Amino acid sequence: MIRARRIWVAAVAVLAVAGGSPGLAQAAQPSDAGPSAAVTDNGSDLPPGWKVIGEGAGRQLVWRSSAPVAMGDARVDFYAGGRLLGHPEPGKDGRTFRLDLADTGASSPLKDLEVRAGGRELDAAGRAQAPHGRSSVAAARPPAQLPANSVDPGKPGSYRTTTGEYDLDPVKLPDFPEPVEMKAVVVAPKGATGKRPLALFLHGRHATCYKGEDVTGDWPCPQGTKPIPSYRGYLRDQRLLASQGYVTVSISANGINGQDYAAEDGGAQARSSLVRQHLARWADWAANPGSAPAVVRDAPKADLSRVLLVGHSRGGEGVNRAALDSLYPPPAAQDGYHGPVRWHIRGNVLIGPTIFGQNPVADVPSATILPGCDGDVSDLQGEAFVDGTRGISRGKALHSAVYVVGANHNFFNTEWTPGQAQAPSDDDFYDDPQQRDPVCSPGTATRLTANQQHKAGSTYIAAAARLFVAGDDKVRPLLDGSGKRAPSADPARVLTHAVGANRAGGFLPDGKMSVTGAKLCSAVDPDVNVACLGPGTKGSSPHFAQWETEREVGRRAVALHWTRAGSAVKVRPGTPVKLAGAKDLTLRVIVPPGSTGTKLDVSLTDTHGKRAGLGRVTVDGLPGTERTSSYWAREVRVPLTAATRAGLDLGHVKSLELTPRSTTGRAWLMDAWGWRPGTPAVREAVLPRVDIGRTTVKEGDAGTRTYTVPVQVSGQGSGQVRVYVVDPATGRTKQHLATVRPGGHDIDVPVTVQGNTRFSYDVDNTVLVKAVRGAVIGAYRGGVTVRNDDPMPTIGVQPVADRVAEGQPLKWKVTLSEAADVDLGVYFAIAPVTGGPELSTKDVDPAWLENASGEKPDPERPLSSIQYLYLGADIPAGKLSGEVDLPTIRDQVTEPAESVLFRSTDDNGDPRPGGPELKGTVVDAS
């Protein structure tokens, strides 16, 4: 087997240390998903965890966890030296993950490998990372209870409800080989007259099938297993909304969950297509009730002009894409729905969502629930559904972040909740009894029970419905950072902040801004002097969650760090800010988790030089530990009455000044706005839409060809986007701004391909795009993949020292029939000798044995009894050979000659019959 040179690194699965879930009971391990081997690469120390299998274009980088990794919504990613390599395909055993190296574009040595999912580290990856041990953080206390709002949307309405299901013919979606089910559960009000608004629920990515205590991600479900009914997990939420007069439907998406591992967007477009397929059926049934299933005929007629979408995890990203696709149609080739849009989406509720594309829909109101103890999408990347809308469009849609202290990822769905689910389920926030988390371990003062969490979720889903669909502004203070609570959600502590609605005149660090007394920091940057949070920070921030690039331009905050009270910080935007007509100045400020009483005096200065102090704000941190994403902004407000009294020109504000009154501290200003109460009407802007495609070409034998990354711009108008071009050799990105117009060629990324007849690896030239202003993004990722079309060199073996005295190394030369353009590694797996005594575990260097296999010499046993023991030779690019050796030791035992055999490996890392072999014999030194 040939592998990428120097790809082996130390890797030990330590899910408990990393804060990840230990996973569910998994189906029996298939024969092609064995534990990964640890090998020695020119003497490197390599514990178990990683291997590379296959040859040529079929090479795969494989990581195997020591414990099952639950199928969840966060995407598992492989990184090397901080660079994203790609998204591996999970094995059926729930432990093994494989990444086609052809898709990584890696032509240089890979080192410092990591496995991450939603910000969690799933492996130790050879880093000097000691176990956390018992946390030094004292038991956390919940935040103070907020005053009650004037209305409580969590109270059941006056209608009784009825429940039923429909199961239609499955649909075929692009790039998915198997059809996807059209199955749903409907809960509707009894006795409601007239058309009723429709709320559609979409669950997230979870295991698809089960039998007893075993679960799989298969689709269709194998014979003898049952589908996991994830779509039934929101019945409590549906009943609450139905009692208030809503028709509700929760749809099944197991067919997507079982096939989305290979989708470049993680299945977002497929989920959008499925949502719109269901909405189209509801539009048909509203027009022709007699054609509807019985459960729909028995329900009030749905009003498709008033639709609320509710999505959990990848379902959240899916309903966001459905809203986008309903306003700005996607390219037909990538879409699974091609009919007219006969509905109007009034708002989205996104529960612990993913947002791989970082492409929120700015003109559709949203409420994003962020679970403080999320063990799946633990970086709380869904914050981008709020932060990512700023400056994109008109800014009138409210985008709310709803932080639920003590909530995990799974318990918003009863079918993912132990004791309530039909199939096996777990608490995604892994709890080690020896390393209890002060905030999130069950039984702590801040951790919610499953029922408490689900009740809070139901309440805030109903709040969004009442505001976005029913237009009741009395519920707005529960969502817009006004500091009110819904008693129905008690005892949960629920905190909110927001952008949009009646906010105007923002101080936005993302744009042109100068700062004195503090610094502008970057949300994502490898430079610790630039990044908002350094690598040594205990915990993380949803605002600074990493995207696919190692560095992002245009995601910033103002970082304050002071050692004495009175150290003023002045923030000056590129152009004066208009605050006329605002009631308050509202600020979103992050302070460290667990901190209390950070006090900041706030003042403004206008373009005439007149200054006015507005008052003082106090900011407390959230409960948090190194395992939580608790560096989250609290919204605080100061009235503008003092500025009005002072005669400040609020139409031309030049600067904002923050003066800390605490002795020492740290804080990060996310933004500041003029605010007034109310919820304005939202009118969706007509914008251009950008979709990046991917094309695959052959390298060719000679000559130079230039290809262009396929880009489609549709819609109307013009907008600005940021384009990231990934260097396939280094993984580093270059970025530039582009103004896009429908039908134009404003994003022009040429890829030059030089043909030859030497073997190399496939090269993936990737382009990423993100909206900056006046545009929306559909397919955010694409590029040109160049396939190597030259055959692999033939492998040979020549003995160098294949019969030695004990204490001397066995050596072989591994040869290639011709040189390759890339570094190659040729690997051989241990195999039993065909006759005579065999080299044992006590005949080789014990340090080598432990590094190579994780095994110790005692008890003495044949080397071939060690599973997954390999030898490998490096052959640099342009060279024809490399050496491999096996160190032996001298002992005092008289023994006969002993032999050893290693065979070249196949695509699964198993010995290949008939392939080249390493044969050696060791004799006594006497």
Describe this entry's structure for a reader.
The protein is 10% helix and 32% strand. It is mostly beta strands and 926 residues long. The protein has a nine-stranded mixed sheet with strand order 10-11-16-12-17-18-19-20-21, with helices on both faces. Strands 1, 44, 46, 47, 49 and 50 form a six-stranded mixed sheet that branches. Strands 22, 24, 25, 27, 30 and 32 form a six-stranded antiparallel sheet that branches. Helix 4 packs across helix 6 (314-327). The chain starts with a strand and ends with a strand. The model is unreliable at 1-47 and 124-137 (pLDDT under 50).
Beta percentage is 25-35%
Radius of gyration: 30 Å
Distinct helical segment count: 10
Structural class of the secondary elements? mainly beta
**Biggest β-sheet: strands ordered side by side in the sheet:** 10-11-16-12-17-18-19-20-21
Largest sheet: 9 strands, mixed
Give a quick set of tags describing it.
926 residues, mainly beta, 50 strands, single chain, globular, disordered N terminus
Summarize the structure.
This protein has about 950 residues and is mainly beta. A nine-stranded mixed β-sheet has the order 10-11-16-12-17-18-19-20-21, with helices on both faces. Strands 1, 44, 46, 47, 49 and 50 form a six-stranded mixed β-sheet that branches. Strands 22, 24, 25, 27, 30 and 32 form a six-stranded antiparallel β-sheet that branches.
